[in-house]
Amino acid sequence: MAHYPPSSADHRFLLFDVLDAGTALQALPALREADADLLTQVLEEAAKFVAEVVSPLQATGDAPGCRLEDGRVLTPPGFAEAYRAFWQAGWPSLACAPEDGGQGLPWVLEGVLYEMLTGANHGWTMAPGLLHGAYECVKHHGSPELKARYLPRIASGEWLATMCLTEAHAGSDLGQVRTQAVPQADGSHRITGTKIFISGGEHDLTDNIVHLVLAREPGAPPGPKGLSLFLAPKVLPEGVPLPPPPGEGRGGGTSTHNFITCERIEEKMGLHGSPTCVLRFDGATGWRIGEPGRGLNAMFVMMNAARLHVALQGIGLLDAAWQKAHAYARERTQMRAPGALRGEGAADPIVRHPAIQRILQTERAWVDGLRVLAYRTGLELDIARHHPDVQRRASAQQWCSLVTPVLKALCTEQGFGGASRLLQVFGGHGYVKEWGIEQIVRDARITMIYEGTNEIQAIDLLLRKVLPDGGAALAELLHALEADLRDDEDVQARFAALREVTRTLAAESAHAPTLPYEAADDYLRSVGLALFAWAWRRIESAPGAASARWREAAAAARLRILPEFELRLQILRTQCEAAAAAQAAPVD
């Protein structure tokens, strides 16, 4: 199978039959016109665009990759044309506000679009992947002047954006950022420093690139509280003077190109179609976004949107790997399947072999359950923004706060691990480039690292979201889900066990400060599996779920995935017991 056709029928079933998205969105005045018919039409057109325009560039973009020539990055053949068609067709502006030139459609619709795009071509999709986060950041924290100048073109996708956080000495520890921003008399700042791992830091897809840069103003306190956020465009607006940058031999001038240089493109394991750049800011002109010293607050608006996008990347990549493996298994014949009534020497398609069925059914069950959780989170994001009731907005925001780190970690681990298992369906053929599955495995690995490593997601969940209130917010979320599936003893038992282990962790962590750090990964996995069980019960209770397609996936979820929940709980209980024993042990 050369190209990726998005799973449109599955998207519609999970959104409208399982989650009843149409009813949920109709309750939001700002989205009342976004009924199921309109959303279905948009999804169908999106699937068509993805399959016909973006998917064919997957392999051709991986082979040559990007190249740096005279400070300019050239993307693979066809990428620039496809991106031009993408933004001119209005796809980046789906969920942006009409007053900014957007279409005012639900965020959940944009989420499904980006899942499709990633499944079709992860490298290409990296370019527009940060647009919505940049839009939200500038919209909520930018000055009126910056909004007027940049917001419409970010919303439309005419100009792409980057997120410039990381420095060579400061990975996840942003408090160590050294990039400087010196204020000028005209209200601008001159930014000096070097940023690494900048996706799309330089390219030929758009005429301008809007860089959002974390930097430190003179006299700012050390650590994260001293960081501010700045907007530094690749191309300056007309009429903005270009001051001479520091250093000999370089004077000021009238060129509109800012003093931002791409030093190199990183040679990566995957994502060869996406230029990951080292950017040097040599006194580049920029403007502060938001208040001094509150750059992380402004940036996290962008980060949270990006993390949900990354979760959807994991789902899209897993679905693409499943589709390739399933198509191959239907065509490849090897030996007789166990129990087959065939003549001696006959061969069956390997899709009939139990070992292959196990892989395919299990990974399909993961795709289905994770989609329900991700789409529900997208709906909650829309509710948090638009619901008329303040308490309902607050509960939706609580859902997003708790579930986003779980999804980012769970979906990306499964995206990579599941794609690797699906490569097994191909045998040795999967390890060579011909079939395309090895590219998905390579591309998927980064999702577990960027936008906050999965270990950081686990720490964020347990230490920042659960333990401070003793698990009360999580218990409230679980109670709401129990009410959603009345009298479901299986889900209730899992939730009760999760509440119990949360209480135990909270109690033992009070005198064992390293315990939550040691337990965080297993705890996140436990929460994810409990939510995954709820998601599958919702699927099974929906009209239309009685077909063989959904019954087989449900059985795989029940028999091969959910038993891990007990394993994770036992690990957590053992860790708590060890911490208690250490506390009770006499001191020599």
Task: Characterise the protein shown here.
This protein has 588 residues and is of the alpha+beta class. Among the domains are: 8-150, Acyl-CoA dehydrogenase/oxidase, N-terminal domain (Butyryl-Coa Dehydrogenase, subunit A, domain 1); 160-244 and 256-294, Butyryl-CoA Dehydrogenase, subunit A, domain 2 (Beta Barrel), CATH 2.40.110; 456-582. It is built from 19 helices and 9 strands. Strand 1 and strand 2 (72-74) form a beta hairpin. The longest helix is centred in the middle third of the chain and has 37 residues, at 295-331. It is globular, with a radius of gyration of 25 Å. The N and C termini lie far apart (67 Å). Residues 248-254 have low confidence and may be disordered.
CATH topology-level name of one domain: Butyryl-Coa Dehydrogenase, subunit A, domain 1
Q: In CATH, what is the homologous superfamily of one domain?
A: Acyl-CoA dehydrogenase/oxidase, N-terminal domain
CATH second-level architecture of one domain? Orthogonal Bundle
| Broad structural category | alpha+beta
Helix share, percent: 40-55%
The value of Rg in angstroms is 25 Å
Poorly predicted spans: 248-254
CATH class of one domain: Mainly Alpha
From the spread of the alpha carbons, the general shape counts as globular
Beta strand % = 5-15%
User: Termini distance?
Assistant: 67 Å
- Work out the number of β strands: 9
Mean pLDDT over the full residue set = 93
Give the helices and strands as they follow along the chain. HHHHEEHHHHHEEEEEEEHHHHHHHHHH
Could you give a short account of the major beta sheet? 7 strands, mixed
Helix segment count?
19
